[in-house]
Amino acid sequence: MQVLRSVRGVPAEIVGAFREPAAFAQAASGQYFVFDRQAHTVYGIDAALTAAWKIVQIGAEAGRILQPTAFGLAPNGTFVVADRPGVAERIQVFAAGGSPLGGFTLPGRAQETITLEGVVLNGVGTLNYDGRRVLMSQPQTGALVAEYTLSGGVARTFGALRKTGYEADPAVHLGLNSGIPLPAPGGFYFVFLAGAPTFRKYDARGALVFERHVEGIELDPVIAALPTEWRRRKGTDETLIPVIPPVVRAAAVDARGRLWMSFVSAPVTYAYDADGEKARVVRFEGAGTLSPASLFFSHTGRLLVAPGCYEFEPR
Question: Which one, out of 119, 173, 184, 233, has a CA that is 20 to 30 A from the CA of 299?
Answer without folding.
Answer: 119
